[in-house]
Recover the amino acids of this structure.
């Protein structure tokens, strides 16, 4: 099965009916990621064939949970996951990709230009120092840090009534137990990533 077939089948399994243009942008993003990864070390996954499930489809499992979200912050975005696939799937969504690593944000800016993503902004800054003009109604991350640290570093960026959607592997029992007292894990949803035989969970956290 080639990349196109794997991605197309995966989108069907996720229930994400994307247009031909969106599919083409996802494939172009995959090609950019594989090309730049050779010199910029954007991801530990080296084989382009594994990137479809590990990066594209894994990131896209977030999209069905973004209903009603207007502004999304992807903290420690790295190579752009999950922010870029989410921005492609939801062109109405305003996405900020935040990372302190200049090499990674150089790649992200180039990807945004080449993919024509008018709804994406790239910011090079440490998360605790970032002070946007407007806060976010959703903050996400894929393996940025443990949950308590994630909340501690970003709570100034969350709009009133907003929520965290943290992407995790196995069910993070210990991390949830260590959350600050004024935040709680509202739900922990198991995610099924097409083509990936590994546990994935989405942790939705809100203020008490």
């Amino acid at each position: 099965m080639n990349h196109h077939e794997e991605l197309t089948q995966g989108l069907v399994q996720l229930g994400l009916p994307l247009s031909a243009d969106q599919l083409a942008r996802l494939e172009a993003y995959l090609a950019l990621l594989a090309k730049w990864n050779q010199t910029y070390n954007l991801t530990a996954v080296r084989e382009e064939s594994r990137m479809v499930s590990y990066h594209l489809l894994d990131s896209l499992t977030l999209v069905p949970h973004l209903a009603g979200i207007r502004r999304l912050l992807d903290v420690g975005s790295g190579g752009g996951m999950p922010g870029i696939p989410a921005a492609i799937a939801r062109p109405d969504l305003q996405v900020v990709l935040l990372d302190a690593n200049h090499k990674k944000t150089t790649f992200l800016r180039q990807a945004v230009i080449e993919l024509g993503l008018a709804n994406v902004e790239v910011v090079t800054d440490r998360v605790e120092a970032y002070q946007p003009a407007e806060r976010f109604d959703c903050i996400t991350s894929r393996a940025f840090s443990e949950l308590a640290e994630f909340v501690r570093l970003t709570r100034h960026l969350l709009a009133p009534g907003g929520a965290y959607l943290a992407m995790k592997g196995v069910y993070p029992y210990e991390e949830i137990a260590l959350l600050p007292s004024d935040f709680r894990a509202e739900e922990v949803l198991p995610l099924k990533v097409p083509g990936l035989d590994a546990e994935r969970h989405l942790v939705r956290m809100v203020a008490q």
Residues 55 and 103 are 19 Å apart (CA to CA). Helices lie at 3-14, 20-40, 48-60, 83-89, 102-115, 147-154, 173-177. The domain at 3-207 is CATH 3.40.50.150 (Rossmann fold). The chain has one domain: 3-207.
